[in-house]
UniProtKB/TrEMBL annotation:
Enzyme class, first EC level, given as a word: hydrolase
One Gene Ontology molecular-function label: RNA endonuclease activity
Primary role: CRISPR (clustered regularly interspaced short palindromic repeat), is an adaptive immune system that provides protection against mobile genetic elements (viruses, transposable elements and conjugative plasmids). CRISPR clusters contain sequences complementary to antecedent mobile elements and target invading nucleic acids. CRISPR clusters are transcribed and processed into CRISPR RNA (crRNA). Functions as a ssRNA-specific endoribonuclease. Involved in the integration of spacer DNA into the CRISPR cassette.
UniProt name for this protein: CRISPR-associated endoribonuclease Cas2
EC number in record: 3.1.-.-
The species this protein was found in: Metallosphaera tengchongensis
Length: 91
């Protein structure tokens, strides 16, 4: 399944650790505080455990499962930084 992870973590150290952990899980950064990647259900459970250890109650993390067709229908406003994440409408 494709998973979108979006977070708001105020502490620089925690935010960096979280981003590095997401990269180790094979996720790709799509914005400063947003990653996407293909994960199976066990990896989602592992990610949830990891995120719970990394953040506290003042932080927020969203894990959003995406259908690949929905991802291709996204509208991008601005520059994706040279990333090629498949078809998109660029505005």
């Amino acid at each position: 399944m494709m998973l979108l992870v979006i977070y708001d973590v105020s502490d620089n150290g925690k935010r960096t650790r979280l981003a590095n952990s997401l990269k180790r899980y094979g996720m790709s950064r799509i914005q400063r505080s947003a990653f996407k990647g293909e994960v199976d259900s066990q990896r989602v459970k592992d990610l949830i455990r990891l995120i719970r250890r990394e953040v506290d109650q003042t932080d927020v993390v969203h894990l959003v499962p995406l259908d690949p067709r929905n991802w291709e229908m996204r509208v991008v406003i601005g520059d994706e930084g040279g990333r090629n994440d498949g078809p998109a409408t660029v505005v």
